[in-house]
Amino acid sequence: MKKKSNHFSGQIGFVLAAAGSAVGVGNLWRFPYLAAKDGGGLFLIVYLALVLTFGFTLLVSDIAIGRRTKKSAIGAYTEMHPKWKFLGILTFLVPVLIMTYYAVIGGWITRYAVVYLTGSAEAAAGDNYFSAFISSPVSPVVYALLFMGVTAVIVYKGVQGGIEAVSKWMMPVLLVLVVVVALYSLTIRHTDESGQLRTGLQGFLYYLTPHVEGLTVSRFLQILLDAMSQLFFSLSVSMGIMITYGSYVRPEVNLNKAVNQIELFDTGVALFAGAMIVPAVFVFSGTEGMSAGPSLMFVSLPKVFAAMGKAGVFVGILFFVTAIFATLTSCISVLESIVANCMEIFHTGRKKTVHVLAAIYLGASAVIALGYSAFYFEAELPNGSTGQLLDIMDYVSNSVLMPLIALLSTILIGWVKTPEFVIEEMERGGRAFHRKKVYVIMIRYIAPVMMLILFLQSTGILQ
Ligand code: PHE
């Protein structure tokens, strides 16, 4: 009876929970931006090629390690090789850091959903609306605490009763929503002051066409690095989350199929998000209107929605609800992997562990949410950008730790432990591991080199 609650019910439950983790703000505010910036279809081709090789390799490794050891990052790496416990600890640090700010972003999105639902969409399109909101001292904190609280309640309910139950309906609904808004994006048209007419279809073609004019080797390498860092952030690999989720998968589930489905879901949502955002921004602001991150979601898009007129309010609601689902299911996975590691280290039960961690992270979220008001400062980051508290957490976890962890784990699996450790798990019960050769070559030779370059580049060592 006790055992049952620590497993996903089956393949679908696992795939939707893992897709819930993978599909997050990265799909919505970074993928479309990169596609528009990095040559449209050219980026899409590079990204797809990487999904099937590099992303596949990292995802297979994490999930197989989780299921084989039935442990989370710290326990799993220690079991693989006691001397490599430090890698488990490094991996554990990523969700520990991400958790401090993920609910803050979730809170911003929730606030926008509320604004659109209560009929103040017009205000949200104002020039300083977003900066005024995040630098106010109360409201961002309240929304962050709300988001963190909801996350904690779901994780408290356990693997099947909480995580799986929520993902099972949110993810299919999210998929329908992005498809609907993407289709709507194709139908819009707008004539600007200079009398130029732009249509959603033109924007869509701009998004799909591989733009290779003036492509140089160094530009291509940049596109490759952009696609690579986006990909492993997007798949939630190298942060222990997929190890934890893998540890909840029953032995009879076919991991080969599950991995394909998770990749398909995550990439599909990214592609549709691009098809919904790139044409919409193109129609109302031209090709210069694309920005990345919070400014795309909270500044550019509200202006686009406002320009759509009445329909824009409705589209805005659909968009921000989609974003809540994407962020909440990711936030849950971050907390779950911390909870799972702590339960193993401290031998505590789920309820007590969630209580303690919820208290800690409610506090941390409040502090980070105040990073634009009470705790505002400007820090110079090694990669040349300036940032506040949230950006520092993001920089350390995503730009420094994740590529380093990916690099070390490919060395551990490829050379210290040998790929058989993962292959045996993929072939358990006589299943066919079709891309075995690709896996071995990637994990031993290509992925370590790629990760080293990415690490040097994102830490600013290699310009
Ligand atoms: N994979 C998520 C995305 O694409 C990001 C994420 C980060 C999820 C950290 C969980 C934890 O946005």
What does this structure look like?
This protein has helices at 11-22, 25-37, 41-69, 73-80, 85-117, 121-124, 129-134, 139-156, 159-187, 200-208, 217-234, 241-246, 255-285, 294-307, 310-346, 350-369, 389-416, 420-426, 436-458; strands spanning 189-191, 197-199, 379-380, 386-387. The protein is mainly α. The strands form two sheets. A two-stranded antiparallel ribbon has the order 1-2. A two-stranded antiparallel sheet has the order 3-4. A hairpin with a 5-residue loop joins β3 (379-380) and β4. α1 crosses α9 (159-187), α5 (85-117) packs across α17 and α15 packs across α16 (350-369). The longest helix is centred in the last third of the chain and has 37 residues, at 310-346. The chain is globular, with a radius of gyration of 21 Å. The termini are far apart. Bound molecules: phenylalanine (PHE). The site of phenylalanine (PHE) has 14 residues, from α1, α2, α11 and α15.
